[in-house]
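From the thread on structure requests for the teaching lab: each student submitted one protein with a one-line request. Submission from student K.M.:

"Model LRRCT domain-containing protein from Tachysurus vachellii, tokens only."
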Amino acid sequence: MWLIAGTAKRHCKGTTQNSLSVHCVLYFLLLHLHLCSSCPSICVCSSTEADCGGHDLITLPALSLLPSTIQTLLLPNNHFTSLPASAFVNLSSLVRLDLSNNYLDNLPAHVFAELANLTDLSLRNNSLTALDRDLLQGLGSLQRLDVSLNGLGTVPLGLLEHQHGLTWLSLAGNRLQALNRAAFEPLENLQHLELGSNPWECDCNLRDFKNWMEWLIYRGGYVDAVECTLPKDLRGRDIRTVPVEMFNYCLQLDSENGGGAGGTKGGSIPCARATTAPLPETAVVQSESEPVDCARQRYRPVSVRRAIGTVVIAGVVCGIVCIMMVAAAAYGCIYASLMAKYQRELKKRQPLMGDAEAEADSEEKQISSVA
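Reply posted by the TA:
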């Protein structure tokens, strides 16, 4: 582009006055055509943004025509059902990508692998029923991820493995019944998590994730309502308000099943027990790293809500005891004051009572003498 502009200026300087205008117009028309060719005809482009949304497109426009400096690509409100694996190869400068309100039902594993600078990815309101565990590979700068209003039934272990910078995540409006805690533990900087409008089953499969949610809230994060669908006695109730004691039977089930939760939707394989088990002599010794199917075990607080409740109850009991002690002390002071006042009045009345008794004795003596 700049090469053409420079050539046009040099050529205009070298022409005569009569032909100057004609040659300049031709060169600047050529320059204009070149600029127009750097944006697909269906899109509206600026120096850093390309808006290709709301055109009911079935296939992607010619994104290869976009300049490499584009930072925002908007593709919402179209009819995309799939994306080619090389859709965003030449757009490494992208910071924001919006694919919301389409009909995407499947995404190639490495479709976003070239977008190392992407911080905001929206896949909201599509038809995704599953996500490949390698879908987010290469997105090392991702901060916001919206996959709400899809048909997801699970979040695969490893999908969020390298998303340490993710601060905002929405999984609302899917078909999630349980989640594996180990899939979310890499999110060290997560501050906002949306999980509403999912058919949650508040059983042992959700126990460990409940503890992780409480830990996220304890360190200042936000989680919206996680309302139970099953069992019936918990329907409509936020699992965060369910006492941890209701999950005590899960420990018994774990012990009866040998401590394994491998057959559950939300359970995790006990790494310590798996790694300490004796290996047969013919077994191949693996590397010192964890097994592929072994969920990483980290600190798991029993229940932050329970700890806070214990502190509150202890404070209330101590307050009541203090109030009772103050009341008893006040009652003792008042009683002692009343008794002292009564004793003073009694002492004042004793001389008067002595004079009355003396007069009564003298009258009795006069009566006896007359008699």
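TA comment: The helical segments are 2-13, 17-36, 207-218, 248-256, 271-276, 304-370. The mean pLDDT is 77.
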